[in-house]
Fold Isocitrate/isopropylmalate dehydrogenase family protein.
Amino acid sequence: MAQTTRIAVTPGDGIGPEVVAESIRCLEVLKDKHKLALDWTQFPWPSHAWHQEHGESWPADALVQLQAYDAILLGALGDPGPLHDKDRYLLSDSVSLGPLLEMRKGFDQWVCERPARLLPGARQYLKDDRAKDIDMLVIRENSEGEYVSQGGRLRQGTPDEVATQMEVFTRRATERIIRYGFDQARKRASDRLKEARTRSFRTFEGHICESQVCLITKRNALRYWGDMYTEVFEEIAREYPDVATHHELVDAACMKFVQSPWAFDVVVASNLQGDILTDLAAVLSGGMGVAPSCNLNPSNTDVPSMFEPTHGSAPDIAGQGIADPTAMLFTTARMLEWLGRKDPVLAHAGQELFHAVAADLAEKGTQRRSTREIGDAVRQRLIT
Amino acid sequence: MAQTTRIAVTPGDGIGPEVVAESIRCLEVLKDKHKLALDWTQFPWPSHAWHQEHGESWPADALVQLQAYDAILLGALGDPGPLHDKDRYLLSDSVSLGPLLEMRKGFDQWVCERPARLLPGARQYLKDDRAKDIDMLVIRENSEGEYVSQGGRLRQGTPDEVATQMEVFTRRATERIIRYGFDQARKRASDRLKEARTRSFRTFEGHICESQVCLITKRNALRYWGDMYTEVFEEIAREYPDVATHHELVDAACMKFVQSPWAFDVVVASNLQGDILTDLAAVLSGGMGVAPSCNLNPSNTDVPSMFEPTHGSAPDIAGQGIADPTAMLFTTARMLEWLGRKDPVLAHAGQELFHAVAADLAEKGTQRRSTREIGDAVRQRLIT
Ligand SMILES: CC(C)[C@H](C(=O)O)[C@@H](O)C(=O)O
Ligand SMILES: CC(C)[C@H](C(=O)O)[C@@H](O)C(=O)O
């Protein structure tokens, strides 16, 4: 018999607990229906409430505790406190988001994967109807680069102050993320074939490929890592002659995401540039209300990967039961698919959840419904 | 009598010379009509052709020569050479764009200003019709930050390679760019009043202001300069109680540029984040075909400011006479307005050119016309 797969659930702040509750109720249905060997434990941290009581966002051994799980399902972090207190907002934002970055770093979740498809029913921001064909996967380097937190403030607070921030990129991390991108491009092409869908991308030499990887840099201004990224990309590309390659500067990429997002397939970007492009991709696929975010460590099965919706804790609507759980439910589906890499039953449950949420979205669109109503509608689809 | 205002015209590569030619022909009409004390000299550099002949993009004393002028009007830089030669493209891109960054640095053009309005006739990418109300000014710090070119590649080409890139921000440069942003917000509000237009922005305390400055950072991840930017912003904001303030993280800002760009007024961002946001703002206001870019040094009248369209040299359509000169003409109008800060006749000529180009755009939209046809149509409007 398969070992039980264990999930650490960290609902967090604001609307986090509300949307997570719907995920749990869907997981219960799926577990029951498919006799899944699946268990979960809820943690009261990281959260603002925990911070208020203990003076820290989570216990000192939080990472050790979480390591015992196969995945972390996170709601949302960040409680600004009273909304009229501007300073408190500014302050607590960076404190409460700390654990997010610590999990990514602590478990070396070096891939941040954010799929962007404009599903039927989701809000369409672009005028051009080809927006319906948006189907890209933005892969963000999630372990280094602009996010190494090195730097400081010299002569802080004086007119002569100098603030520095170091960006550090290693060839090893560059290679693994670019290779991951090419592997995903192949996988997506073969998944499309199974659904009898094809796409075609032209290589520089004029050949037609079923998939594409677009590398993002700003190598005309940030030369050092831009050149390294480009060289590694060209090296690895040679191993994937079946995948078309492309390169965009980050500023031009943002433009093209708006002008012709349907022309992209897999997009690989650095930590900060990926952060920017994934938010942009999220809005193109309907907004924060539908966008999942997966922080993965594909190379070490001893540490959990972490799954969160791209949206924040939305303190302005928290506690009212009106937050849209769609992104959280898509995120949960993604988690099951990831956990099911070697367990077809789990993977199938993930797909079932995805299709239930997508069907609900297609039927109801962005109609105003309560958190519970949407959760119930999805659950109903899972039961029947 | 007023001293003659002198412009250095650097057409550059690709479609640069073609669109610059239309600007010159318009300048001739305006000079004649208003007896402007205006002169210009064309330079064959910086350009790819010059590079091929001399082994460098421009002469060693280029900056000294240019310093004698009041402004630089630049077409576009970057000639990829034969388009089927991929490697050559990659190489020459960063070489040929060098002079752009050297001018900005050499003349301390510390403001990069890119207005974004969706003018009638321009292409609208967003579905929401409020896109017609887009009217923002993105102000980019143009002298330091991510663009200081410090860093390197350790163990280059080996599996152990580490590439670093340093970001350096000074409080002085931070103060001047933020203060510039607030001044522009005030100026815009007063200009709007003259046209009997008003806008309203709510402050944190609930007051209504006629203008707003939104600061962009990524302070939850790039903490050092993010904190410094935030502190300086809050300090300076106190001197402008009539201007509403706002703060966005760069990733959220990209989302909101797509979701509700009409809610922004003045936006102040760092060099790289500004680069990204200005490209995004450009596409929201109709695309590269209409977007001007102004590299200004407002504090030193002894050095020229530089004006260029946001678009590149578009080698794929160069030499065919089909490039749209609209962005170049808008850029030229901006230049005249800038040069006319203390010369009402020059400023008026700039506005006249702006209105002629805008009227042509409103009438013809994005209809396919040759470079010359568009130039002629605008000239005709100036003559009559
Ligand atoms: C909260 C913040 C630190 C985080 C990031 O920048 O990675 C967020 O924007 C995200 O995309 O997950
Ligand atoms: C060409 C490049 C170096 C430049 C920049 O990044 O500043 C360009 O993108 C721009 O926006 O003017």
About this structure: Residues 124-285 of chain B form a domain with the Isopropylmalate Dehydrogenase fold (CATH 3.40.718.10). Chain B touches chain A through 66 residues (CB under 8 Å). The radius of gyration of chain B is 21 Å. The pocket of 3-isopropylmalic acid (ligand 2) is lined by residues A 220-221, 251; B 97, 100-101, 275, 293 (CB under 6 Å).
